[in-house]
Each structure stands twice: as structure tokens, then as C-alpha cells.
Write a structure and sequence with these properties.
Radius of gyration: 24 Å
Number of domains: 2
Largest sheet: none
Distance between the termini: 76 Å
Length: 226
């Protein structure tokens, strides 16, 4: 039985506590990792994750199943991050936890945050973090989380968008992702993390030769072009 089937079975029985616990334990580490990429600060990610768990706990009774539980948890996480970033006077510890959600969030943080701090030192992670928030989200959801385009569109779209809007957004995100891959490769090459492709390297190698030939043909010394 898949995690989604287990959660659905608990919901069908009316066991909201069990369903929330299963969702947070099963999907919490990856959602916390997503938030760390989104807000780029482990402490802020921890705060937002706690709020996400509370939102899940509070809203589970109204979950309509439009998406999987996993996708819905990502939607809650993105909305919680947006609220956190808009808050003009956010302060550590301002949150009043619902005891059960807070305990589960603490368990997930304890297991996950040390790994995230190590990962953040990776130079490829630094390139990813230099992207804007939406592109970082797109990259994580597609590459790391292997979500479908529709699932990604649900996470990144506005709340309440109809299916037609979601489908259009999925197509747009797919095109954006193709551009994003090329942009990351280009940044990685500039940072020396990837070798130059054969065509580019060959082109660069030919430039000094072409310049020498041109200078020889005009009789001009280097730097004295006509």
C-alpha cells in the first residue's frame, strides 16, 4: 500500500489525527528541504515548516482530494512561505504551536536540518540558490521531487485556479524548465563546474589563430587594427 493509499484509508475512517501524522512523517523531510531552497535560510525554513504542519492539521477536514496529499502539502508550504515573507515584523518564536503538529514538526526538523546545512555548501546548490524564488521552486519540484507538470502547476498557481488555467500553467512551466536547464549549465560552465562544450571550446581556440591571421594580412601589429 502506498503512502497516499494509507492516508486516504485513514481519512475514509475519519482518523484525521492518523492521516496528518502519516502525511507529516512521510512527506515532511522533503517538504522541509523544499522550503530551505525556497526561503534560503534554515531557521526561516524551520519556522515556515512548523506553520505548514499546523495548516495541514487545521485544514485536513476540508481536504477535497483535488490533488494528492503530497502535492497539497507542498501547496500549503508555498502559501505559508509567501505569508512568512510578506510579514513585516516576523520574529523567531512568534508562532504558537498546536501541540501535536509542533511535536511532529520538531521530529522532522531534527532528522532533516543537519543534512540541509551540509547540502547548502555544495557549489551547484549555490548556483541554484542564485535563481529567483519561482525558478528555484520549479527546479526542486521537477528534478528533486519528480513531480508531474500538473502537480507543479498546482503548487505554483494561485489558490482556486480552474483546471484550464492549471493546464496552461503546466505547459508554460515546461517551457520555462527547458530554458532553466540551459541557464544552469551556462552558469556552471562560467563557475568552472562543467567543461566547455566541444563547439564552444573549439570556437575559443580558433579566435587567437583567426586574430593572428587577420593581423598578418593587414600588416598591423597586435592591438593596432585598422
Amino acid at each position: 500500500m502506498t503512502p497516499e493509499e494509507q492516508i486516504r484509508g485513514l481519512l475514509d475512517k475519519g482518523d484525521l489525527h492518523g492521516a496528518a501524522t502519516q502525511a507529516i512523517r512521510g512527506y515532511g523531510p522533503e517538504v522541509l528541504g523544499f522550503l530551505a531552497t525556497l526561503v534560503r535560510d534554515p531557521h526561516d525554513a524551520s519556522e515556515v515548516f512548523s506553520q505548514t504542519c499546523e495548516d495541514l492539521w487545521a485544514g485536513l477536514a476540508g481536504f477535497q482530494g483535488r490533488s494528492s496529499m503530497r502535492t497539497w502539502l507542498y501547496i500549503l508550504a508555498r502559501h505559508a512561505a509567501a505569508r512568512f515573507q510578506r510579514a513585516p515584523h516576523r520574529r523567531p518564536g512568534r508562532r504558537v504551536s498546536l501541540s501535536q503538529a509542533g511535536e511532529l514538526a520538531d521530529q522532522v526538523r531534527t532528522r532533516t536540518l543537519p543534512f540541509l546545512r551540509t547540502e547548502a555548501k555544495d557549489r551547484f546548490a549555490q548556483i541554484r540558490n542564485s535563481l529567483d524564488e519561482r525558478d528555484r521552486s520549479l527546479l526542486v519540484l521537477r528534478v528533486d521531487r519528480r513531480m508531474t507538470w500538473k502537480e507543479i502547476a498546482l503548487v505554483l498557481s494561485s489558490e482556486g485556479d480552474c483546471d484550464e488555467v492549471i493546464e496552461r500553467e503546466a505547459a508554460r512551466l515546461r517551457k520555462r524548465f527547458q530554458w532553466l536547464k540551459e541557464e544552469i549549465r551556462a552558469r556552471a560552465r562560467r563557475a568552472g563546474l562543467l567543461p566547455l562544450d566541444a563547439e564552444s571550446a573549439s570556437s575559443r581556440a580558433r579566435r587567437p589563430l583567426a586574430r593572428s591571421e587577420e593581423q598578418a594580412g593587414t600588416g598591423c601589429p597586435p592591438g593596432d587594427g585598422a
